[in-house]
Amino acid sequence: MSGEFLCLGIEGTAEKLGVGIVSAEGEILANLVRQMKVAEGIHPSEAAQHHATHLPALVRAGLERAGVEMRELSLIAFSRGPGLGPCLRVAAVAARALALKHKLPLLGVNHCVAHIEIGRLTTGAEDPLTVYVSGGNTQVTAFAQGRYRVLGETIDIALGNCIDQFARELELGMPGGPVVERLARRGRYLPLPYVVKGMDLSYSGLLTAAVRLAERERVEDVCFSLQETAFAMLVEVAERALVQAEKEEVLIAGGVGVNARLQQMLAGMCSEHGVRLHVPPGEVLGDNGAMIAWLGVLSYLSGERQRLEDTHVRQRWRTDEVAVRWR
Ligand code: AMP
Ligand code: MG
């Protein structure tokens, strides 16, 4: 093992805590995720407490899984933003402490860009249009002139958040995505508001309407209609972005990306355009530490350096603010 460049990545933007270890060649040696229970939705301070409690053991378990010692690492990376302030600060403080104690360089990296890069690494996608859909983010991005440009995005809540809040209102269980997907299999279509504004998406009116509709219609039908409407809006924006950006591949990123119906709808759109759809393995679709470690590797090897005192967290750090030096 010794001599190899290894990065330990800590993910902690929301309710999941992740630790990953990745080599400069892109080998994922460990990728452990601990998801806190979120029956009532995510309370930032409780999630931060969860991360602070479980981080030391998760780091130890990650090292053990990878079969490496702390002293064999070359770099520590952490999710600097965007995300929930209290959670980000726990990950940042832990990463700084580890870097100081073990005299390692430290890099705070962008969570959204990390989703894109781990997708490229694990699927072999080279220059895709990325459809990134998670609990906190909904963005359609493409690389152009040194940055991941945001071609379309939500103007209010994220798609995953829309489904989660719907499930919470109806007490279906959290996280809502898998439950709604299961119920939707037995549903039929009922009209719901479809809101695409230019290249942007709005999911908050859809959420309200779906909750109201569920007061008088079968829950399976509302789940099906919620998915069909929300996904069709996303696929419409992705399709226009694909044509506009002239990309030949589409990459799915984010936890909502595991949804079979969403994958099917995106696959249909891709085949009409003769482009390839890349779906990363489930372990790297949702939030995880390996994606942070891998972006740490890419950033560090392309010359990025941060002084410890400049590693403050950035709750609202946009994808297109990051200079992509490694491409
Ligand atoms: P992430 O923030 O990337 O870890 O993704 C978490 C989000 O993915 C949450 O909003 C979940 O409800 C959502 N999710 C997980 N599984 C599914 C699924 N099968 N269908 C739709 N959404 C899902
Ligand atoms: Mg995420």
Keywords:
327 residues, alpha/beta, Nucleotidyltransferase, domain 5, five-stranded mixed β-sheet, 12 strands, 43% helix, binds adenosine monophosphate, binds magnesium ion
Please outline the helices and strands.
Elements: E1 6-11, E2 16-23, E3 28-35, H1 44-66, E4 75-81, H2 85-101, E5 106-110, H3 111-123, E6 129-133, E7 138-144, E8 147-153, H4 159-169, H5 176-184, E9 196-197, E10 200-201, H6 204-213, H7 219-245, E11 249-253, H8 260-273, E12 276-278, H9 282-285, H10 289-301
Parallel strand pairs: 1-4, 4-5, 6-11, 11-12
Antiparallel strand pairs: 1-2, 2-3, 6-7, 7-8, 9-10
Helix pairs in contact: 1-2, 3-10, 4-5, 4-6, 5-7, 6-7, 7-8
The structure holds adenosine monophosphate and magnesium ion.
Word description of this protein:
Helix content is 43%, strand content 20%. The protein is an alpha/beta fold. The protein has two domains: 6-115 and 284-321, 2-Layer Sandwich (Nucleotidyltransferase, domain 5), CATH 3.30.420.40; 125-281, Nucleotidyltransferase, domain 5, CATH 3.30.420.40. The chain has a five-stranded mixed sheet with strand order 3-2-1-4-5, with helices on both faces. The two termini are 27 Å apart. It binds adenosine monophosphate and magnesium ion.
Q: Indicate the low-confidence ranges by residue numbers.
A: none
| Percent helix range | 40-55%
The biggest sheet amounts to: 5 strands, mixed
Whole-number mean pLDDT = 97
Give a short synopsis of this structure.
By secondary structure, this protein is α/β, with parallel strands linked by helices. The chain has helices at 44-66, 85-101, 111-123, 159-169, 176-184, 204-213, 219-245, 260-273, 282-285, 289-301, and strands at residues 6-11, 16-23, 28-35, 75-81, 106-110, 129-133, 138-144, 147-153, 196-197, 200-201, 249-253, 276-278. The strands form three sheets. It has a five-stranded mixed β-sheet with strand order 3-2-1-4-5, sandwiched between helices. The chain has a five-stranded mixed β-sheet with strand order 8-7-6-11-12, with helices on both faces. A two-stranded antiparallel sheet has the order 9-10.
